[in-house]
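Sequence in, structure out. Go.
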Amino acid sequence: MSVPAPFDYHTAKTVDEAIALLQQYGDEAKVLAGGHSLIPAMKLRLSQPGHLVDIGRIDGLSYIRDESGNVAVGAMTTYTTLSRSDLLRRHFALLTDAASVIADQQVRNRGTIGGSIAHSDPAGDMPAIVLALKADII
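Output:
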């Protein structure tokens, strides 16, 4: 098994703390969400950040809700949660259908929509899906 290059690990407890860490470390920092895209790239040394900012413990980043007629999805929402959402199924069945067949159940339980979009792997499903749905990424 490959071993990633050395890095410093930071756990952000708030969005403000995550932003401060990302500003402090600049291009040397990467956001760690579920880790299913970033960690394999680090093991292959395709990505060698000096700092990881883990946002997994920040409350309030995993949600699916109707906001004034728009469907909002939080960055830390897992594929499993996406696949089971009645709200998404009613409005964006492509998203729920795709989320239910991405990888295996372990990945769906940990992998997040935000991580997939941020990593932007050309082989990844989520960037193409949100593009097809003309989603706004905020």
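Check: Residues 64-132 form a domain with the Uridine Diphospho-n-acetylenolpyruvylglucosamine Reductase; domain 3 fold (CATH 3.30.465.10). The radius of gyration is 15 Å.
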